[in-house]
Amino acid sequence: MTIIVSHPSPEKIDWWIEQLTPLLPGWTIRSIHDPGEPQSVTYAVVWKPATGAFLPFPKLKAIVSLGAGIDHVLADAELPRQLPIIRTVGEDLTQRMREYVALHVLRHHRDMPAISANQSNTEWQQLVVPPATRRTVGIMGLGNLGGAAAKTLAGLGFETLGWSRSRREIEGVTSFAGDAELDEFLGRCEILVCLLPLTASTTGMLDAALFDKLPEGASIINAGRGPHLVETDLLAALDCERLSHATLDVFAVEPLPREHTFWSHPRVTVTPHIASLIDAPTGSRIVAANLQRFERDGRVADQADAARGY
User: Fold this and answer.
1) Residue 307 counted as domain residue
2) How far is the CA of 164 from the CAs of 85, 146, 192, 284, in angstroms?
3) Residue 109 annotated as catalytic
4) From the candidates 242, 265, 273, 293, which is the catalytic residue?
5) Which residue from 86, 131, 208, 222 lies 20 to 30 Å from 280 (Cα-Cα)?
6) Does 96 share its domain with 77?
7) Measured between alpha carbons, how far is 279 from 31 in angstroms, rounded to an integer?
């Protein structure tokens, strides 16, 4: 049984191989750049694989995405579409997303960007904000990560709304579903959090038309995927104060180019794709367990639906 590991960073490939090897005794784990006999490769563990990366391996049984999303795998136009794709999700990753969303929702809620600006200007201004019970936060995307984040916000006392393509029942969260209920959902969101999967229908969803449906002065947090956002529309909405602030963790181009406007914009907080960053010591345990289960049963609970894109 041979596994190949593919990652844009050679150091990360070595890291994952080092962590996976003791967890999968009897399995051979190699770099995609040194795969050995291609016929022996049965699994690929990958992040942002190159186009055509899987074609040399005719015996592949499944691909493991090093993350909850599979859009980076589906971006390969030459991907063998019959291959199962296994997502990597677990309690540690979910906890990290809960922390990130809670942190930045609270920053927006308590107007910390303005307070930080006042500190830079040595201004003592006691800004008064309502308690969380009088602030409405909406989560777009109620999968594993979005559902957990929504429950966390509800536990903090926020009026918490959730929107997804199909209705989800989450304690303490008011659920909206489908296109017919999107406008009502947006109209109540003082803080909007995007945790949607990236699909053809969600690409470019955070645009001027959507921003215009939010309450005046709303803020947004995008921890989904960079292509969800139309960057020029966001900048225009911030500059005319239609939106008050944006926290962005994901970008169309990563790393975010040094010359990009987001770095210096006073109404934008940039974080470098760290909301639920997977690490090899944690993720390898999840990957190893999923591979062993798939090899035994031919399926795992975290198997993605490539037709839906997540």
Assistant:
1) no
2) 22, 10, 13, 30
3) no
4) 273
5) 222
6) no
7) 17
Task: Please indicate, yes or no, whether residues 55 and 126 belong to a single structural domain of this protein.
Answer: no
User: β-strand 2-6 against 28-31: which pairing, if any?
Assistant: parallel
List the catalytic residue out of 225, 228, 245, 267: 225
Q: How far is CA 155 from the centre of its chain?
A: 22
140 and 254 both lie in a single domain: yes
165 flagged as catalytic: no
Please give the pLDDT value at position 211: 98
Same domain, 73 and 143: no
- CA 118 to CA 60: how far, in whole Å? 57
pLDDT at 268: 98
- Ranges of residues in the chain with a pLDDT under 50 are none
pLDDT for the residue numbered 234: 98
- Token pair 């509800």 is found at 154
Residue 19's CATH number: 3.40.50.720
From edge to edge, which strands make up the β-sheet containing 41-46? 28-31, 2-6, 41-46, 62-65, 85-86
| Cα-based angle 158, 195, 308 (whole degrees, multiple of 5) | 135
As a whole number of angstroms, the distance between CA 309 and CA 11 comes to: 29
The pair of three-digit structure tokens given for residue 252, joined into one six-digit string? 């169309």
- Residue 255 shares a structural domain with residue 287: no
